[in-house]
Specification:
Layout lengths: L3 E2 L4 H5 L23 H5 L2 E2 L3 H18 L11 E2 L1 H6 L4 E2 L2 E3 L5 H15 L2 E7 L2 E4 L5 E4 L15 H4 L15 H13 L4 E5 L1 H5 L10 H13 L6 E2 L3 E5 L6 E2 L16 E2 L2 E2 L2 H18 L23 E5 L4 H4 L4 E4 L5 H5 L7 E3 L3 H15 L2 E3 L3 E6 L5 E7 L3 E4 L3 E4 L5 E7 L5 E5 L5 E4 L4 E6 L3 E6 L1
Parallel strand pairs: 4-6, 5-6, 6-9, 11-15, 11-16, 16-17
Antiparallel strand pairs: 1-2, 3-12, 7-8, 10-19, 13-14, 18-23, 19-20, 20-27, 21-22, 23-26, 24-27, 25-26
Helix pairs in contact: 7-9
Amino acid sequence: MTGKKSGFDPAELRGKLLSKNAVTADGERLVSFSQGTPEYYANLTYAETVKDFIEEIRALFAWRMEGTANNILPVDSYFLFTKMQDELGMRTFMPEVGCQIPLMRQAVALARGTARAKGKTWGTYYECWRADRNEEGNIRYCMPCFTEDGFNEWYLTQDLHGNDDYTTHGENGGSSRLLQERLYFHTLMSGADYFGEEWGFRCSYYDTKDYVLTPYGKVKKEFIDTAAGIHGIEAKTPIALVLPLDYACVEIPETFDERCYIGTRRGKYMSVKLTEAESEYYGHIEDLLTLLFNRVPEEAFGNEGHVLANGRFGDVFDIVYEDATDEQLAKYDYLIDATADGRFAKANPAMAQKILSGADIGKLTNELDRVIPEVMPVYVDGLHWLVSTDDKGRRFLTVFNNEGNMRTSAKGDVINRACDKRVKITLKNGALEVFKNAREDIHLEKVDDKTYYATVSAADFVVFTF
């Protein structure tokens, strides 16, 4: 592989960089150098092109798979190499979700699409911490940690982490209970096989003697009680975005506004600086991802709406790659060709009637406005919505309003009621009934047998059956 040498001095890595951190008895650091010594990292050649970076990641991941006898659970956040993981033998896919990571809907669509294509499982991993600013304006990280003894699963202490505070914020620390509940139900209703979380134990109880539930723990228990009566959930996603193979990493931007406007060209992919032609190529694919999964920037308010986004469309999409088999692609009513030159459509003339060109974003938007009501049993004219069925044949419609909460450790949740939103819900058949309210009772207005209106409060959601 071409590239540049690290330039690191192993002695410096062992000395200055390791001296203030926890080390094992033989002097090795417990974190960061989880595989390989400082000498290994000092002698690496680091990639400078997209192709070499992908090669580097593939080699590293294969090494880790081999070293653990394929017993790895992926916790992917910003760089989703889900296809590569599948090719190297990963048995399940588990994107990390939470306040630090935008575009959960995109990550879920990729995990679910890959799992469906390969007969594997998928789930999500919830991280409940959050970046905050203290009174001096400095950024720090905090958690909804309630335990009186200040102990936590990561053995983090204040002297090790300086400005960060993982021990004292309690109810106002970390991301909100409102976001927590929406992430839980989005995972469930999206058809996940499992759900994991970070720091869940110490956030759930005040102490380890009586195990009294905290506000975090109560949200979790209520979710478990509801989920216990729902089995075999399958999300209805009749449209797949088909990615080219050279878009090997489905990237999540570190901030939603880095890629919220269609036409934005970031000039980088996986932190690699791009040529103008490369920037246009990858930028077009990012435009499609923005159209399908990102929040509408003009409606954005608060600091949690980037996680689950009130997008332009509902959750009706999976993400797959262009080498999917005809049998796998046959499961979808429509396929969006993510190649700007239309090469996927050209290679599959027998599927021409179901392939939507992604070359022109405006035309694709109009096509999706036409076909989504055609292939879905219900349509919602705003917010974030998804349709699911369970093993009893019950049909669920979940509607999320993800905007409207400005959360800080100083004030907790500050809800902007101007973000409450009234939506029109149109059914093809059935009757709409409330199955689960979150924070507030929903007011459902029935116009006729097929048409309803509902107002979903800011940072809230509702589950219907129909």
